[in-house]
Q: What sequence folds into this?
């Protein structure tokens, strides 16, 4: 018996070995519907976090929210001077055309950029307070939406100054386009915020992806410049695999309201001359796909959040 006791490993050695092993916390199975319900229950927390995001962005700033207005206004002035006055771009009101696309893109890129790092940046409360952590990513999207509305004021003012009359038959598509973009941005924001906890390179990779994504979207150049070439090769459908393209086109068609212009006696195509119904169908497809992605993102977040405290 004494020999058997001596052959047993020391308890302290066993304990130290156990401490060295990586601890993996398995989160309880929570259905996506329960997660959505929890987000609704904590909606007041979501609103307060959106306010916090807004306060932090312009903390100790003299101009505060005016910076959100100055950004698109400066774009408008610079591109008007450079392209209309210096480079003599023949496209009428190119600055308005550009601002319609930039308004959408700024919301999308700002939402993803801030949401990707939000869980890591809020590690303190993630490890200490119990609440639906998806709210952190959604708060970033909510803050980006507030900045979107502020920047939209600049676009509306520019439309009035340059006396641009929107296409009234397409204006009703703007809210649907915004809903589609919200769902899509929200789905990506939730997924990226969880992935970035484990792979910190995600936030750096996102910068490169957004740069490529920007040029793959018809913001600086007219849709038809590339669309005509793709259509000739029966590849136009590739263009619409990018959900942001559909949203940008909707804003341009409704607010810029020109599908072509005449240059040196030739008609230059700008935007697709599709009916409002065509745009509505495309936007509904984006909404449905984004809703599926949103559910998938919540499911992915639920699988990954169990080990957030350890990784952070």
A:
């Amino acid at each position: 018996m004494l020999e058997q006791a001596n052959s047993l490993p020391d308890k302290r050695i066993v304990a130290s070995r156990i401490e060295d092993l990586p601890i993996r916390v398995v989160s309880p199975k929570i259905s996506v519907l329960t997660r959505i319900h929890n987000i609704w229950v904590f909606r007041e927390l979501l609103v307060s976090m959106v306010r916090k995001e807004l306060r932090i962005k312009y903390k100790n700033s003299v101009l505060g929210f005016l910076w959100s207005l100055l950004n698109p206004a400066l774009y408008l002035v610079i591109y008007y001077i450079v392209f209309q006055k210096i480079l003599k771009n023949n496209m009428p009101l190119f600055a308005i055309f550009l601002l319609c696309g930039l308004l959408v893109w700024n919301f999308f890129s700002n939402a993803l950029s801030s949401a990707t790092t939000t869980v890591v940046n809020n590690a303190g409360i993630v490890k200490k307070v119990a609440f639906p952590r998806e709210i952190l990513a959604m708060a970033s999207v909510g803050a980006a939406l507030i900045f979107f509305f502020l920047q939209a004021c600049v676009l509306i003012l520019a439309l009035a100054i340059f006396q641009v009359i929107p296409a009234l038959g397409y204006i009703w598509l703007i809210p649907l386009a915004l809903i589609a973009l919200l769902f899509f941005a929200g789905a990506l924001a939730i997924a990226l915020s969880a992935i970035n906890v484990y792979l910190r390179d995600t936030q750096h990779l996102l910068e490169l992806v957004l740069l490529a994504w920007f040029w793959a979207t018809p913001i600086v150049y007219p849709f038809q410049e590339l669309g005509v070439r793709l259509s000739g090769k029966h590849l136009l459908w590739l263009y619409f695999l990018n959900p942001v393209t559909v949203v940008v086109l909707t804003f341009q068609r409704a607010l810029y309201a020109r599908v072509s212009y005449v240059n040196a006696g030739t008609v230059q195509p700008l935007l697709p001359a599709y009916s409002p119904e065509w745009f509505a169908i495309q936007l509904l497809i984006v909404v449905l796909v984004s809703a599926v992605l949103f559910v998938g993102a919540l499911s992915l977040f639920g699988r990954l959040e169990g080990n957030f405290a350890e990784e952070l």
